[in-house]
């Protein structure tokens, strides 16, 4: 079985719903891992592709886990829950649920965790009840993390940094390619800070005409003739909140000097004004350019660079964050299906094309692409043939997301996992059902029955 390919399509079963990350194992009756996810691999510090080659007993022997709740459930033939300590220091509350056949024998075991205490601490130092989750333990509250997909380790670390710095007024410089979500991160910092009820004022420095910069940022006093044409600048309007200076690299050099003075003195003067006005806002800047190279070329002020670069946050491109790529794809499909009343589902070939694309426009480009797919795509979930549905790389994830909480869905989940495993074995045997049945240790009639069962579940 090509476990790395099969695992890639299913590794998001515990993450795709936007909840906090959880571990996931689906094993056979001997403890061989059939399906797992990225976060499970993260907790023991090995690649997912490597993890999918293991038996859970071997993981215990190698010291990756303190014990195996999966093997205990196989032995007891009933659900077992216990805290498992990993080599990376995670204490994971795991529950293993065996799936029994008609003879009462274990067929599959689904082992998962929906929450965990986080990184372990020494026994002589009890964890504080207010301790924040650490590595891998990012919890994204729906009201504060809207629009953020943080399934990759890189994005989880970024969210952790944002959580740590949000309560301070230190200046932040967000770096990343166009479309990586710099403004979304800036808004997240705003919402998590004590300034959450203040304004969030975004300023696209690339969109302001050169001769209007000072007027837009600092405003203007009423004319001496008495006309009421005075105006507050964007910096003033951000009082009590966050001023987000996007594309800061596009700010003219003369305005950079004036902005530097405002940041250093925490006050400004409107055009035509003489009295200083206090500045009461947090400044977050962002750029998709290499500011330090611009400093060396004389295109950006060095003193301003150091002033705004107190806390740098670099967002990697989407092509280097495959977990986020799949999470965003699923999220966008769900969004546009709801927005346009569609029931589009991503096929295996299209999914592979998405994985292979460089996405130079990052999440913005991906969003537009998915919107186009949903609007123009002809493949609908209720129109697919059985074979096409079985080859759908998102079939299992879709089934899980739409059947949460429904009685009997765990057995249906097992049916899908078994069916996909059998299909892979058939492919390895060149379609020879007798040979596949022999390798699987079952009668040939079982192969056909399991495939039919999976087709019925997916066609539900």
UniProtKB/TrEMBL annotation:
Q: Domain Sigma-54 factor interaction spans what residues?
A: 148-375
- PROSITE patterns found in the cross-reference section: SIGMA54_INTERACT_1, SIGMA54_INTERACT_4
Stretches assigned to coiled coil = none
Q: Which domain of life is it from?
A: Bacteria
Kindly state which keywords UniProt assigns to this record, in alphabetical order: ATP-binding, Nucleotide-binding, Transcription, Transcription regulation
Region span, Disordered? 117-139
- What SMART domains does UniProt report for this protein, alphabetically? AAA
Specify the species: Saccharibacillus endophyticus
Give yes or no: UniProt keyword Transcription: yes
Protein name per the record = Sigma-54-dependent Fis family transcriptional regulator
């Amino acid at each position: 079985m090509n476990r790395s390919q099969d695992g890639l399509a299913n590794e998001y079963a515990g993450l795709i719903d936007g909840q906090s990350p959880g571990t996931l194992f689906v094993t056979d009756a001997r403890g061989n891992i059939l399906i797992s996810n990225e976060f499970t691999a993260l907790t023991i510090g090995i690649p997912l592709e490597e993890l999918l080659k293991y038996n859970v007993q071997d993981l215990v022997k190698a010291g990756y886990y303190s014990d195996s709740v999966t093997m205990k459930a196989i032995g007891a033939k009933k659900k077992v829950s216990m805290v498992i300590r990993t080599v990376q220091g995670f204490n994971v509350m795991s529950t293993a649920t065996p799936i029994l056949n008609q003879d009462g024998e274990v067929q599959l075991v689904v082992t998962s965790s929906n929450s965990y205490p986080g990184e372990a601490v020494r026994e002589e130092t009890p964890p504080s009840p207010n301790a924040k989750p650490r590595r891998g333990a990012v919890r994204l509250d729906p009201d504060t993390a809207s629009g953020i997909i943080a399934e990759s380790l890189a994005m989880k670390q970024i969210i952790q940094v944002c959580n740590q710095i949000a309560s301070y007024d230190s200046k932040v410089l967000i770096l990343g390619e166009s479309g990586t979500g710099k403004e979304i991160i800036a808004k997240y910092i705003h919402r998590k800070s004590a300034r959450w009820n203040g304004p969030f004022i975004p300023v696209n420095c690339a969109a302001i005409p050169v001769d209007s910069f000072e007027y837009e940022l600092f405003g203007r006093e009423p004319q001496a003739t008495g006309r009421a044409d005075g105006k507050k600048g964007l910096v003033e309007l951000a009082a009590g909140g966050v001023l987000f200076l996007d594309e800061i690299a596009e700010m003219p050099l003369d305005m950079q000097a004036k902005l530097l003075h405002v940041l250093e003195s925490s006050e400004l003067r409107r055009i035509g004004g003489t009295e200083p006005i206090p500045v009461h806002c947090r400044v977050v800047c962002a750029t998709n350019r290499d500011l330090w190279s611009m400093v060396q070329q004389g295109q950006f002020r060095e003193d301003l660079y150091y002033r705004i670069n107190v806390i740098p946050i670099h967002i990697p491109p989407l092509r280097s964050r495959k977990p986020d790529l799949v999470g965003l794809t699923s999220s966008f499909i769900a969004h546009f299906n709801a927005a346009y009343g569609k029931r589009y589902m991503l096929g295996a070939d299209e999914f592979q094309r998405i994985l292979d694309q460089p996405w130079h426009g990052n999440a913005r480009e991906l969003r537009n692409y998915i919107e186009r797919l949903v609007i123009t795509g002809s493949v609908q979930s209720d129109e697919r043939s059985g074979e096409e549905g079985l080859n759908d790389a998102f079939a299992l994830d879709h089934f899980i997301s739409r059947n949460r909480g429904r009685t009997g869905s765990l057995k249906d989940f097992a049916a899908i996992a078994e069916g996909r495993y059998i299909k892979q074995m058939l492919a390895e045997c060149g379609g020879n059902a007798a040979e596949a049945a022999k390798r699987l240790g079952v009668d040939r009639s079982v192969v056909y029955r399991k495939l039919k069962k999976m087709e019925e579940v997916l066609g539900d």
